[in-house]
Amino acid sequence: MPVMTYRDALRAAMAEEMERDEQVVLLGEDIGVYGGTHLVTNGLIDQFGPRRVIDTPISENGFTGAAIGMAMAGMRPIVEMMTWNFSFQAADQIIQNAAKIHYFSGGQVHVPLVIRGPNGGGVQLSAQHTHSLEGFYGHFPGLKVVSPVTPEDVKGMMLASIRDPDPVIFLEAGALYGTKGDVPEGDYTVEFGKARIAREGSDVTLVAYGRQVNMLLRVADDLDKEGVQAEVIDLRSIRPFDTETIITSVKKTNRAVVVQEQWRWFSVASEVAALIQEHAFDYLDAPVERVSGAEVPAPYARNLEVAGFPSEEQILEAVRRVLYQESR
Amino acid sequence: MATTKRTARRGKTGNDAGTDSRKEPQVQLETEELISLYQKMVEIRLFEDACQRGFRQGKIGGYLHLYIGQEAVATGFLESHRSGDRIITAYRDHAHALLLGATPRQIMAELYGKGTGLVKGKGGSMHLFDAENDFYGGYGIVGGHIPLGVGMAFAAAYNKEDSIVQLYLGDGAINNGAFHEAANLSGLWGQDGLNPCLWILENNQYGMGTSVERATANTNLASKFDAYGIEHEQVDGMDVVAVIESARRASERVRESGTPFAVEALTYRIVPHGAADFLERYRTKEEVKKWRERDPIGLLEQRLEDAGVEEIAIAKIREEKQDIVADAVKFAEESPVPELSELTTDVYASEMHVADAG
Question: How big is the CA angle at B256 (ends B250 and B261), to the nearest 5 degrees?
Answer without folding.
Answer: 35
